[in-house]
Specification:
The protein has 238 residues and is α/β, with parallel strands linked by helices. It is 39% helix and 10% strand. It is built from eight helices and five strands; from the N terminus they run H-H-E-H-H-E-H-E-H-E-E-H-H. Bound molecules: iron/sulfur cluster.
């Protein structure tokens, strides 16, 4: 009988394996079809580019103090470039703020070859495939939960910044599963920009409105509001 290969205990190798599993995942047929369809149809401005068109892996090197959790890859952003929050307006907002707080090597995120590196940070989404209308179904979010759990377990963040209500709810749900509550702490607050909560294991979750155009164009989220979340994260990690 062939010997089964032993699972590697090397964290760097585990991290790479997780990213490979993400990119190969086909658990949600609707989303896989949608990512591919966008990659064929393309936006006029990117007609000469080859779209990524599949699940988008986490951005960052594994163990990190900060984990930024968004909703899902943008159709013509991460689904085009193949890197989280890269190539669209949400990404411009995110990496500008992260750079200002010292979590990113530069404020621009254009494509996978632009030289951007994260500093003590990982960027991910609760749904790793671009969904139609930016709305994954409950079942699709549930399908992606094992990846979220593995990401959190491997990153071991001190602070999670949840971009939007769904990310906030998903992290709280996962925290229950991982026994991050011991009953001694108060109940977590409801989601609103600037809300924060410390779990009994010392991990913090900070809430921010998502830097989507819907929020940034309308002034619901300003640069000042967004910056304050990342400077708070910086302070807590120190
Ligand atoms: S959303 Fe997650 S679970 Fe569904 S296909 Fe994409 S990577 Fe797989």
């Amino acid at each position: 009988m062939a010997k089964r290969k032993k699972a590697s205990k090397d964290p760097a190798e585990q991290w790479l394996l997780l990213q490979r599993r993400i990119v190969r995942c086909k658990k949600c047929p609707r989303l896989i079809a949608h990512c591919k369809a966008i990659a064929v149809k393309k936006r006029k401005a990117y007609a000469d580019q080859k779209y990524w068109g599949k699940p988008v892996k986490n951005f960052g090197d594994g163990r990190a103090g900060l984990l930024v959790m968004g909703l899902a890859p943008g159709a013509h952003g991460a689904n085009r470039t193949g890197r989280m929050f890269t190539g669209d307006r949400s990404g411009d907002w995110l990496y500008r703020a992260m750079h200002k707080a010292g979590f990113a090597s530069q404020p621009e995120s254009i494509d996978r070859e632009d030289g951007l590196e994260l500093i003590n940070a990982v960027v991910s989404n609760v749904c790793l495939c671009a969904p139609p209308d930016n709305k994954p179904s409950r079942e699709e979010v549930a399908n992606c939960q094992p990846f979220l759990e593995q990401t959190v377990s491997q990153v071991q963040p001190k602070v999670v910044v949840a971009l939007g209500r769904l990310a906030w709810m998903e992290i709280l749900r996962l925290a229950k599963e991982l026994n991050w509550f011991d009953g001694s702490e108060e109940k977590p607050p409801k989601f609103c920009h600037g809300a924060e909560f410390r779990f009994s294991n010392g991990v913090w979750i900070l809430a921010s409105y998502h830097p989507s155009q819907q929020n940034t164009f309308t002034g619901r989220l300003t640069e000042k509001m967004f910056d304050s979340v990342f400077s708070r994260a910086k302070k807590l990690i120190k």
